[in-house]
């Protein structure tokens, strides 16, 4: 009996011989009671607790990425961009990179390029660097700013909470907070 390519017996061998004894097939090896299943082998091997699935494909623990689970998922944490809006991220099929689409919350826009609705950033786990390396900033749309100034005309260094749970802060820095983050 022989394992198919990419698989081995638990001892690392790829083939074994059987003999017929009293009408039953038995392995010739005395240390085997029965022929064990062939197991997948990955070359290079999976790292950091990854499990070889066969065909040199590893199933990585949640905190690792890469074809051999060799990169920490935290190396491409989207929070490293310091973006103050919404984002949606997904890894490529080979788990070598993370692609994130950044978008400002409703009522806000990108400060430098207000006509752009989303910004795409890709991080390779090998380098831990996003491209482009910095995220745009979200600022309140002027019409939203006017509305808040109308509601809170004397809002210098004051804090107000809206019915949706967002927290707005008016101060000398012009920052606005929302759901634990800072906008502006």
Protein architecture, described:
By secondary structure, this protein is mainly beta. The protein folds into three domains: 7-40, no CATH class; 73-139; 141-183, no CATH class. The chain is built from one helix and 18 strands. The protein has one helix at 142-151, and strands at residues 7-8, 18-21, 24-27, 39-40, 51-54, 57-59, 64-65, 71-72, 86-91, 97-103, 108-110, 118-124, 129-131, 138-140, 158-161, 167-170, 176-178, 181-183. The protein has a four-stranded antiparallel β-sheet with strand order 9-10-12-13, with no helix packed on it. It has a two-stranded antiparallel ribbon with strand order 1-4.
Give a brief description.
This protein is mainly beta. The protein contains 1 helix and 18 strands.
Topology:
Layout: E1 7-8, E2 18-21, E3 24-27, E4 39-40, E5 51-54, E6 57-59, E7 64-65, E8 71-72, E9 86-91, E10 97-103, E11 108-110, E12 118-124, E13 129-131, E14 138-140, H1 142-151, E15 158-161, E16 167-170, E17 176-178, E18 181-183
Antiparallel strand pairs: 1-4, 2-3, 5-6, 7-8, 9-10, 10-12, 11-14, 12-13, 15-16, 17-18
What would the keywords be for this entry?
disordered C terminus; 1 helix; 4-stranded antiparallel β-sheet; two-stranded antiparallel sheet; sushi; 184 residues; mainly beta; EGF-like domain
């Amino acid at each position: 009996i022989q394992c198919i390519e990419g698989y081995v017996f638990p001892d690392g061998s790829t083939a074994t011989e059987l003999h017929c004894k009293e009408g039953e097939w038995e392995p010739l090896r005395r240390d085997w009671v029965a022929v064990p299943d062939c197991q997948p082998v990955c070359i290079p091997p999976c790292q950091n607790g990854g499990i070889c699935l066969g065909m040199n494909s590893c199933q990585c623990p949640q905190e690792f990425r890469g074809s051999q689970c060799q990169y920490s998922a935290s190396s491409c944490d989207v929070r490293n961009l310091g973006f103050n809006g919404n984002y949606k991220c997904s890894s490529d099929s080979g788990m070598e990179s993370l692609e994130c689409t950044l978008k400002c919350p409703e009522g806000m826009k990108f400060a430098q390029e207000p006509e752009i609705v989303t910004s795409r950033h890709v991080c390779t786990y090998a380098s831990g660097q996003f491209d482009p390396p910095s995220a745009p900033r979200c600022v309140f749309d002027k019409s939203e700013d006017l509305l808040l100034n109308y509601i809170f005309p004397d809002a210098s260094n004051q804090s107000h909470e809206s019915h949706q749970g967002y927290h707005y802060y008016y101060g000398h820095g012009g920052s606005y907070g929302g759901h634990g983050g800072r906008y502006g």
